[in-house]
Each structure stands twice: as C-alpha cells, then as structure tokens.
Amino acid sequence: MSRRAELAAGLAAVRERVAGACAEAGRDVDEVTLVVVTKFFPASDVCLLADLGVTDVGENRHQEAQAKAEECADLGLRWHFIGGLQSNKAAAVAAYSSVVESVDRAKLVGPLARGAAGREQPMDVLLQVSLDPPGREGRAGVDPDDLGALASRVEQEQDLRLRGLMAVAPLGEDPATAFARLAEVRAAFVAEHPAATWLSAGMSGDLEHAVRLGATHVRIGSAVLGSRPTGK
Ligand SMILES: *Cc1c(COP(=O)(O)O)cnc(C)c1O
C-alpha cells in the first residue's frame, strides 16, 4: 500500500469514529474539527494529508514544527502548537502557529503576543487545563482554580484571541471520568468567557469520550499516521 493510501485509510477510519461519536451524542459532525498530529512524521506526510483534505495539523516541538511549517507554507494549513512551551521560544512559535493550545502560565502570554503582532487576525489561544488531582506530579496544565487569572491576562492582548480550553486525559485514569471533570470546568469557564467555546480534548485512544463530553477539536496522531517512530 502506498503511503497516501495508508493515510487515506487512517483518516477515513478516524472520520468514521468521529461521525459515530457525534451521532451517538446527538451532535453535528461539523462541530468537531480534526487536528491531525504529525509530530515525528515527515513533511511529506503533511503534504499528503493536506491533499487528502486535512486543514489542521498539530505539532508539539518547536524546531520540528517550525521546519515543517516552513516546508509546507504553501498548503494553507492551520498549525496548532500543542506541546510544552518555553517562554524564550514562545514568540517564535507564534510566528507560524494559527492556534497555540498549550498556554498554561502567564509568563508565556507577553512573548506569544509579541510573536503574533502585526497579523491581520489575532492568534487563537487555548488554555491547557490540568486534569490531574491537585498535588500530583503529572502532565502540563494550569490548575482549574487559576484559569480565570490566566484568561484575563490573555484577554489583555489584542493580538491574541482567547478561544477556550485544551486538556489531556491523565495517564492511569478512565478518560470518561477525566473528561466529565473537564466538562464541568469548561461549563464554568464558558459562563465567564462566553466567546471561548473551543474545547480541544481527545486523542487516538479516547476521542469518543471527548466528543461525547463536548470536544470541538480532537487531536489525533497514531490512528491516522501509525505508530510514531520513537514510540513517543
Ligand atoms: C501526541 C499528542 C496527541 C496525539 O496522540 P495520539 O495518541 O497519537 O493520537 C494529542 N495531543 C497531544 C498533546 C499530543 O502530544
């Protein structure tokens, strides 16, 4: 099978899963954007995906993302940065990203705004919220109690547009439970920030749970592209 055919098959399977989850949840399939996570895979795959109708791609490491965004600049893709951010790289990340999903502390906001300055459209920002129990050494993300202050900081920047929340289900917990908690956090957040309705949640292993609990964006890597070369 050609690489194109492999990717087409992966995409078709994922789109079918998203459609099935939407149908079950009584949601319109257009409410869920598929972000294909291309980390560790070559720019040639990104080209094939664009040709297969993918509009949104996700990357989690700055150098790799920057190189691919440059190589694929003519494809009209929206690049989502979904990885851990260093403040000294944030401005550079903003230069090629349409969406930065992993904003989890105030220190990133100034550099992101600087990097996004001068565009026609502000850069879309999601706040990454931690779903780990308090005190647990876990994945990145802001504590739900601190979301309000971080949101206010983003809203001070005219080159940034606060769009909503992003989360990763913690390892070792049923994603249904974690995403149910996320749905509560999100409801409270949207009550305070009515325009920030995006919710990026759901990966290859748990997208159905995320769609059921209101995700507007799912970030899918291995189910489309296959296992990552390094197993990361
Ligand atoms: C790698 C990654 C994904 C995609 O994971 P898969 O399990 O391959 O679908 C989604 N979100 C984040 C934040 C990631 O780093």
From TrEMBL:
CDD domains: PLPDE_III_YBL036c_like
Domain of life: Bacteria
InterPro entries named in the record: Ala_racemase_N, PLP-binding_barrel, PyrdxlP_homeostasis
Alphabetized Gene3D superfamilies for the sequence: Alanine racemase
Domain Alanine racemase N-terminal: 43-229
PANTHER family on file: PROLINE SYNTHETASE CO-TRANSCRIBED BACTERIAL HOMOLOG PROTEIN (PTHR10146), PYRIDOXAL PHOSPHATE HOMEOSTASIS PROTEIN (PTHR10146:SF14)
Role description: Pyridoxal 5'-phosphate (PLP)-binding protein, which is involved in PLP homeostasis.
UniProt-recorded name of the protein: Pyridoxal phosphate homeostasis protein
High-level lineage: Bacteria, Bacillati, Actinomycetota, Actinomycetes, Propionibacteriales
